[in-house]
Amino acid sequence: MAKAATKLNAPAKKPKVKAITVAMTGNAGCALAMKQINPDVVAAYPITPQTTIVEEFATYVANGAVDTEYVNVESEHSAMSACIGASAAGARVMTTTSSQGLALMWEELSIASAMRLPIVMHNVNRALSGPINIHCDHSDSMGARDMGWVQMFGETAQEAYDNTIIAIRVAEHEKVLLPVMIMHDGFITSHAIDRFDVLEDDVVKKFVGEYEPKQALLNIDDPKTFGPFAMPAYYFEQRRQLREALDGAKDIVLKVSKEYGKLTGRSYGLFEEYRLDDAHIAIVVMGSTAGTAKYVVDQARAKGIKVGLLKLRLFRPFPAAEIAEALSHLKAVAVMDRADSIGALGGPVYMEVKAALYNSKKRPHVQGYVYGLGGRDTGPDQIETVIDDLKKIARGTEAPREQVTFLGVKG
Amino acid sequence: MEVTIGVGNLTEIRWHARGGQGAVTAAKLLAETALSQGQYFQAFPEYGPERMGAPILAFTRISNDPIHIRSSITNPDIVVVLDPTLLNTIDVTVGMGDDGVLIINTDEEPAAVRKAMKLKGRKVYTVNATSIARETIGRPIPNTPMMGALVKVTGIMPLKSVTDYVRKSFGKKFAAEIIEGNVKAVERAYAEVKSE
Questions:
Q1: Nearest chain B residue (CA) to A188
Q2: Which of A113, A170, A356, A403 is the most exposed place for a label (fewest CB within 10 A)?
Q3: CB atoms B43 and A135 under 8 Å
């Protein structure tokens, strides 16, 4: 098996293909990746902050840059329904959404995964209403975490672009055949102009290849039933198969990411380790805040504080064993969630990390934080307080708090 | 009159303007020019209830190394003010350090602005970008001249890279006289920006 983690400070590999450096927003990068993938069908409904992806993609369609059948729908419920129909028919299908749009797709999300349909969807992270808010947190995609979809989070526009291309191959892999949801942070990543490298159209076309569905509704020579009724005699087995397929997606994410890394020089694992090897304390975080945390880690390291970072990329399936191993040498770990699991022990990532460590012989103390809800800015000062907490826990002068800590909340 | 800016080589800029004055376009243009220089950058507006004429903020980070930080800019090295009437309504110096740099579009001298703002520390530069824009572009859009003033004061990139980029990027969308008007606006502001 390939290594679970990548290291940012590892020397960059030489790419085999030409890189085109661009100044673009994260959303423009995702729309470009969709153009290069040239899916058969896109059915989507615009919602902030995802809107500019569908806007730009609709321009590609109108200009004849893609062959995609673009379905204008009246809601996200219809968008996902149309995607399911088209995917079952045997088409390569993509869509995009955010927040309430994902919530409105809810009843179809579990059908897409149970029917083993390799739909690829961007969810540009935005806080769930209410109060109504357009800015970033991860509450929308966390609400869909048990729906049988692969979920990947990106830190930067570069990762949002790369993950879009990688997701196609993961979803359509014969051992997976599951929908994939790709996340990047609303506004912070989606609307900021960033510098990143894109591939030439032909390179992407070759990497994703032609989609040849194993089972297709429109294959009249081999008729099959899709989405049948399953009573207690069959439902349970079907759900076990779904779990096995999703668990197995972990290896395929690694395999496809490794192949992509050989091509582009940009390697991705299940997570990224940043200055973690010799660290005594560490932060676990997903999305754009991982970047700010790297900045703070560098400053703390300059002062001699042995702190590292684990940036989670793959949230579903959750790489529990690999994370437990990567954190085993630490004294104290802070898990930062950009979503609360209201009424539970803490945020979703915190609970997963803590559970992953429970049966390990060597394990650090773990403290949970909720940050940045509804787009509240998470600056270096907030992450510095987390490092201060960890130092006290590692020294044994303070016990980890039972209650989750809210960062940067007023009052 | 070049000033030393930023921590390490990371420079953080905050743009104050009113909706419609082109601050977001300027932040974007600066980022794209930085790319042509091989630099790293981020450009992002603050998203809120923007309307034509309402005060808005935009941000730019520029560095010779990859930029990891993703939070908003709270302690800018440079503040660019595209509309002098904002000086009466909001504190454009919030979060600025003592060595921060203010570049203001106004017909006033830097010393007069300092006095009116009761400003301590920092460095003040002024340029009449609105009148330059009116005379060169034919419209009072101060964003491109402010780019000229910014590169003169900070030295973050050569003047030529800005004018070359304006010609290249505007070339796709605008008539020759508008492009040359913008180039002239950048060059004039570069020459005319005043220090204390």
A1: B70
A2: A403
A3: no
CA A155, CA B165: separation in Å to the nearest integer? 29
Q: Are A192 and B43 in contact (CB < 8 Å)?
A: yes
Query: Who contacts A409 (Cβ-Cβ below 8 Å, separation ≥6)?
Result: A376
Instruction: State the fold for domain A11-264.
Output: Rossmann fold (3.40.50)
Q: What does the domain layout of chain A look like in residue ranges?
A: 11-264, 271-406
| Pick among B68, B72, B168 to test the A interface (most A CBs inside 10 A) | B68
Beta bridge partners, A152, equal: A182, A314
Name the class of domain B11-192: alpha beta
Residue A195 has pLDDT above 60, yes or no: yes
- Which among A383, A143, A398 has a CA at the least distance from the CA of A285? A383
- Mean predicted lDDT score pLDDT of chain A: 96
Structure tokens that stand for B113 in this block: 């602005």
Strands B11-18 and B78-81: parallel
Check if B176 contacts A (Cβ < 8 Å): no
Q: Distance (Å) from the C-alpha of residue B173 to the closest C-alpha of chain A?
A: 17
Q: Give the model's confidence band at B54: pLDDT under 50 very low, under 70 low, under 90 confident, else very high.
A: confident
What is the value of ipTM here, to two decimals?
A: 0.91
Hey, is the C-beta of B42 within 8 angstroms of any chain A C-beta? yes
Select from A191, A195, A379 the Cβ nearest to the Cβ of B40. Answer: A195
Q: How many residues are listed for chain B in this entry? A: 196
Q: Write down the residue that tokens 């002239």 correspond to.
A: B184
C-alpha span between A125 and A238 (Å, rounded): 30
Written as one string, the DSSP assignment of A297-351 is HHHHHHTT--EEEEEE-EEES--HHHHHHHHTT-SEEEEEESS--TTSSS-HHHH
Q: How far is CA A155 from the centre of its chain?
A: 9
Cross-chain Cβ contact A378/B40 below 8 Å: no
Q: Residue B72: closest CA among chain A residues belongs to which residue?
A: A377
What tokens appear for A53 in the block? 């992806």
Pick the CATH number of A271-406 from 3.40.50.2300, 3.80.10.10, 3.40.50.920, 3.40.50.150: 3.40.50.920
| Minimum distance, in Å, between the CA of residue A361 and any CA atom of chain B | 34
Give domain limits for chain B.
11-192
Mean pLDDT of B163-188: 90
Residue among A94, A48, A99, A46 at smallest CA distance from A74: A46
Alpha-carbon distance of A145 to A151, in angstroms, equals 8
